[in-house]
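Final report, Chapter 2: Outcomes

The project's central promise was a pipeline that accepts a single protein chain and returns its three-dimensional structure in a standardized token representation, suitable for archiving and comparison. That pipeline is now operational. To close this chapter, we reproduce one record exactly as it appears in the project archive, with the input sequence first and the structure output second.
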Amino acid sequence: MGKRPEKAAYPPGPRPGWFGFSILADFRKDPLEQLDRLHREYGDAVSYRVGPYWQYLFFHPHQVRELLVSKAKSFRRFPQSMRVLRQWNGRSMLISEGDQWLRKRRLVQPALQPKRLAEYLPAMWAEALKQCDRWQMLLARTEGEKVTLDVQPEMNNLTLRVVAQTMFASDLGAEAAGIGAAVATLSEIGAEELSSAFILPRWVPTARNRRKNAAIGLIDRVVRRMIKEHEGVTAPGTDLLSALLTHTETDPDGTRHQLRREEIRDEVTTLLLAGHDTTAAGLTWTLYHLAANPQVQERLRAEVDGVLGQRNPAFEDIGHLKLLDRVVKESLRLRPPAIGVFFRQALQDVEIGGWQLRRGDLAGSYSWVIHRDPRWFPKPEHFDPDRFLPERFARLPAGSYFPFGTGPRMCIGSGMATLEIQAALAAFVQRFRFAVPASAAPPRPIGELSLRPEGGMPLVLSTRAA
């Protein structure tokens, strides 16, 4: 009998020279196209070497579950990636690992429980109505009954105002636009640095560092201003920032102490940025999908009219807006605001998808690819909210849909982000119709820290007919 062929040591993948750094260049040029190409050419498990690290990409739902859920304790987030984000997030919950991460998560978790989300809904709705009023005034000043406007910066400002009011009891006012621009800068630069072999220290006076430092400085000033204002209040409120300022911890020896101000600064910064950036992206793309699919938009409008009429929603009403829930889920499938998870580094030898990873190897998985795989989502580029009817969703393999990640490090703010998008959409369709500008090409997605449309998202806005 012939000798049985041995299994290859590594999954297939590109084997370029120059220590694999050309792969990083491809990711910097167009990460979305690079991910699609690697999956198309090499399959569900891809490997390549960059410098000292073997990197694995896993594109099958079962592999996702292994990597992020069942074997999550065998990995940590890649420290080099975390160093990029630490430049502006400090040592917050987003960056921490192990016991420190669990401690910080427990601090924040109460502010994102369903009971608190119900309390946030009136503020979300009020801000959405203010946005509607601004659009109504714009239409009143415009000849004709419609206007074309870029909704992306407006959604950034909206979600910033919501997170500042609900979680920090602060009014950003005119500062919102500046923060939105700063976050866009950090999203762009952060994506570049995550796919770079070497990052220059912040003190090196390059043009990119000057832009980055200016953005970090602006955000830092706003956050410290919010903290200082809360410190001067004699009766603390019920918001998260007040809770962080009054929180006490007890050491094993019985010593009680409060959180250091830098710890509070780090958590507030992370929640302010993460709490609006991907939410704004999700809301922006959902408005586009409704504009590009007017029949779905009309179905959604009929549902909102039937459940709400013209009144403000109660928290219980959101659960009755079934199509709204499916619209949001389908938008997050087709254009996930976060295109994947941060690279994990193996803490020990571990097997994923039948492939043996050694300690120190890196592994990642990307919803951008898996959400658009026709094996799980037929006609994947077609916007079809009814994919998420209960009977159809139940047939999907676990790990095929994870817009907020999955497993222990799943986004802690997923419930708040979803509710905020739902509330804004319900308010908008009560009063307006959205359309794609005539002859406009489909917006090209750009894979930064959040999925942004290249050149913004111009849509035609008009008042709905009675």
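Archive annotation: Residues 1-5 have pLDDT under 50 and may be disordered.
This record, like all others produced under the grant, will remain available to the consortium after the project formally closes.
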